[in-house]
Amino acid sequence: MPSTRASATTVEKKRPHISAQPFTWDNWHQHINWLNFFFVILIPLYGFIGAYFVPLHPYTALFAVFYYFNTGLGITAGYHRLWAHTSYKATRPLQLYLAAVGAGAVQGSIRWWSRGHRAHHRYTDTDKDPYSVKKGLAYSHLGWMILKQDPKRIGRADVVDLDQDAVVIWQHQNYLLSVTTMAFLFPALVCGLWGDMLGGLVYAGIIRGCFVQQATFCINSLAHWLGDQPFDDRNSPRDNWITALVTLGEGYHNYHHEFPSDYRNAIEWYQYDPTKWMISLWKQVGLAYDLKQFRQNEIEKGRVQQQQKKLDGRRAKLDWGTPLDQLPALSWDEYVTETKQNGKALVAIAGVVHDVTDFIKDHPGGKALISSAIGKDATAIFNGGVYDHSNAAHNLLSTMRVGVLTGGGEVEIWKNAMVDMVKDSAGKGIVRAGNQVTQVVLPHGSAVVA
Ligand SMILES: [Zn+2]
Ligand SMILES: [Zn+2]
C-alpha cells in the first residue's frame, strides 16, 4: 500500500501521533489506515462474497493458480530479492515483468515496500522495525498495515538507488493505475478469453490477490515466530519449511537475515526455494546476472558458532564441580587432621581434596579400595597406580571437590590447567574429556592398567 505519510500534519502539531494515542470511541477511525484497509480487508471480503455467486470455471481456476505464482514471484524475486536487497541484477525486460506482476500482488509500490523492508532488516525486532514481531504476531502480520504508523518512528533506510531506477519510479508514481490494471483488469481480461471475465476478476483477481498478500505477510509474522535458528538466535528470524512452502521459498528467514544479499534463501538442494530456482533459470536464459552468494566458509562459520552457543548452554546446565579458585585452601597437615582426627572421608588427588563420604558405598571398585585412599595423596592410585579411572570417573570426582591443597607441587598442575582452560561464550571454563584436573599422566612404567 502507498503510505499515507503526512496526512495528519494539519491536525494540531503538539499532539502525539495517533499511533501513540489510546483507542477510544471517538478516535478509532483515525487509527485505521483506510487505503490499506480497503485493499487488504475490504476488497478481499467482496471477493469472497462474490465467490458465493460466481461459479468457478476450471480454466479460471488454473489461471488463478498460475497467476498466483507469477504475482508471488513479483514480490519474492522482484520486490524482495531484486529491489530491496539487490541480490542479483535483472535485464530491463525482467525488471518490467517483475514490476508488473509485483503490482498485481497488491502490496504497495516497489519503493514503499523496499524502504520498509530495508528498515525491517536494519532495525529487526526494535521499535524502528515497521513490522516488529515484538509487537505481537497479529501486528507483524496485518496490524502494521491496517493501523496507522508514525512515519517518524520507523527507522531510516537508504533508497537512493531505487530513486534512480526508472522502473521503480514509474511504478511508484503510477501505483494505483498499476495495481488496478495488474491485480484486477488483466486477470479479468485473460479469463474473458473463455468468456469468464467476472470469474477472472473474482478468482484470479481478488481472491488470488488476497492469498498472495496473506502468504507474503507470513514472512513478517510466521518467519519471525516459527522454526529453527541455525545461524543466530539473538533476533527473531527463523527457518521453517512450512513458511517456505507458503512464501515461494522465503521461509529460511534465519539464513536470510544473516546473509540478506544472497539471492538464495534456502541453501540446501532439498529445501523448497522456487524463487531461487527461477532466478537461476533466468540467469541460464540471460535475463538475470551478477547473482550474489555468500561463501560457504562464511555460512559454516555462522552455523558452527550457533551450534557452539547451544552447546555452551547445555554445558552450563551441568554440574562440573565447584571451580577450584572458589574452594577453600588447606595445608597438607590440615587435610590429614580432618581425616584422621575429625573422621572425614577426604581423598586428595592432584592437589584437590574430595569428600567421598556419600560415594564410598557406591564405589564400583569396592569400599576397601576407596577407604584405603582416605587421608592420603591418591593421585597415582587413581590414575593407574591401582586402577586407571575412566573419563566418567574423573567427571564424577570433580563434583565431590571440597578444597585444594596448598604448598604441594601438584597445586601448580591445576593452576596451569586453569590458566590454559578454554572458555565458553559465557566465560566458563570448558572441561574436555581426558583433560580434567585430576587426570595426571604418571611417569612411564608406574601405571598399571587394570
Ligand atoms: Zn524478517
Ligand atoms: Zn529481506
From TrEMBL:
**Do you know which SUPFAM superfamilies this protein is assigned to?**
Cytochrome b5-like heme/steroid binding domain (SSF55856)
UniProt xrefs under InterPro entries = Acyl-CoA_deSatase_haem/ster-bd, Acyl-CoA_DS, Cyt_B5-like_heme/steroid-bd, Cyt_B5-like_heme/steroid_sf, Cyt_B5_heme-BS, FA_desaturase_dom, FADS-1_CS
Q: How is the cofactor bound?
A: Expected to bind 2 Fe(2+) ions per subunit.
For this protein, the Enzyme Commission number is 1.14.19.1
Q: What membrane topology is given?
A: Multi-pass membrane protein
Cofactor annotation: Fe(2+)
Keyword vocabulary terms for this entry: Electron transport, Fatty acid biosynthesis, Fatty acid metabolism, Heme, Iron, Lipid biosynthesis, Lipid metabolism, Membrane, Metal-binding, Oxidoreductase, Transmembrane, Transmembrane helix, Transport
Catalyses which reaction? Answer: octadecanoyl-CoA + 2 Fe(II)-[cytochrome b5] + O2 + 2 H(+) = (9Z)-octadecenoyl-CoA + 2 Fe(III)-[cytochrome b5] + 2 H2O
Cytochrome b5 heme-binding domain: residues covered: 327-406
| Record's keyword annotation contains Cell inner membrane | no
Q: TM segments?
A: 34-54, 61-82, 175-195
Per its UniProt entry, which superkingdom is the organism in?
A: Eukaryota
Q: Does the record bear Transport in its keywords?
A: yes
Write out the annotated subcellular location.
Membrane
Q: Which family does it belong to?
A: Belongs to the fatty acid desaturase type 1 family.
- Any idea what job this protein has? Stearoyl-CoA desaturase that utilizes O(2) and electrons from reduced cytochrome b5 to introduce the first double bond into saturated fatty acyl-CoA substrates.
Record-given protein name:
Acyl-CoA desaturase
